[in-house]
Structure formats: C-alpha cells, structure tokens
Amino acid sequence: MKLNTEIKYEILLSNWEVKTQKLGEILWDKKTILYFYPKDNTPWCTIENKDFTCLKWQFEEKWYKLIWVSKDSIESHKKFVEKQELKIDLLSDPELLLHKELLAYWEKNNYWKIVQWVIRSTFILDNSWEVLEEFRSIRAKWHAERILKSINN
C-alpha cells in the first residue's frame, strides 16, 4: 500500500517549528516510522513517546524519521511536547484523513452515539512511502524497543 502524499497536514517539528505541508514533503525521502496514538498528555501515550524520544538517535542512525500522528491540534501538541520534554515530530490529523487511509481508527455506536477510537498503531515505511510493516493494537510499554528490534532484523 502506498500513501496519498498530496494531502496537506500541520506538523510540529522537534525544533518547535510549525509547518503546513503535503505528506510527501513531510516524509521527504527517508524511511519513516509513523505512530498513531490516541491523545496527548495521557499516561500510556506519554510513556511511549518518552521511550521513543530516548531511542530517537538509534532510529536516526538507521536513517528512520519518527513521526507521531494524533487527531489533537497543534496547540495541544505544543503543550504535550513542552510538558513532557519530547523530541519527536507530531503531526495533527483532526479530520482523521491519514488515520482513515491506514485504518488506524474505528467507529463504534455507543448508546446511540457514534464514537471514534484511534487504534494505537505503528507503520514502517520505506523511502518511497510504501508500508513495509504494520503493528496494530499495540501495548505502549516496550513498544519503542520492539520497533527498533524489528528494523534491526
């Protein structure tokens, strides 16, 4: 599966710069790890993001770019990054376009109300934006180490 790289998204870069770019410009020509998480500043998402921040240099050493995706706004991302001292690019997808493209969410009828749930998922992409490997409904604890091990094999 190859991603639609023409859709524009807002992204908060690890250097605090905010950009609105097409997905293809964000991904550029690097191998990428796209991680979908439910919500900024929640306990498990914080643990997982901190784990990836600690291991970021090991992913970069293997030429992987780390991008985290949630439906939260850029303002929410800024608060999350500042509070937790994260060093990872955070993409805002409030309309769930990228989530839907990669099936990283589902809808449930909960007492006559449609509720959207983000499925904690990770996708490893090659430098032409093809999905090489996917991990769905993952557990937050030790996830960064599992992904690192996967790309080392």
Write down the domain tally. Answer: 1
Coarse shape: globular
Decide which structural class fits the backbone. Answer: alpha+beta
Computed over alpha carbons, the radius of gyration is 15 Å
> What is the tally of helical segments?
5
Unreliable sequence segments = none
The overall strand count is: 9
Explain what the structure shows:
The protein is α+β, with helices and mostly antiparallel strands. It has one domain (8-152): Glutaredoxin, CATH 3.40.30.10. It is 33% helix and 31% strand. A 7-stranded mixed sheet has the order 2-1-5-4-3-8-9. Strands 6-7 form a two-stranded antiparallel ribbon. The longest helix is centred in the middle third of the chain and has 19 residues, at 43-61. It is globular. The mean pLDDT is 89.
Question: What brief labels describe this structure?
Answer:
153 residues; alpha+beta; Glutaredoxin; 9 strands; 31% strand; globular
Element layout with pairings:
Layout: E1 8-12, E2 18-22, H1 23-27, E3 31-36, H2 43-61, E4 64-70, H3 74-84, E5 89-92, H4 97-101, E6 105-109, E7 114-118, E8 121-125, E9 131-136, H5 143-152
Parallel strand pairs: 3-4, 4-5
Antiparallel strand pairs: 1-2, 1-5, 3-8, 6-7, 8-9
Helix pairs in contact: 2-5
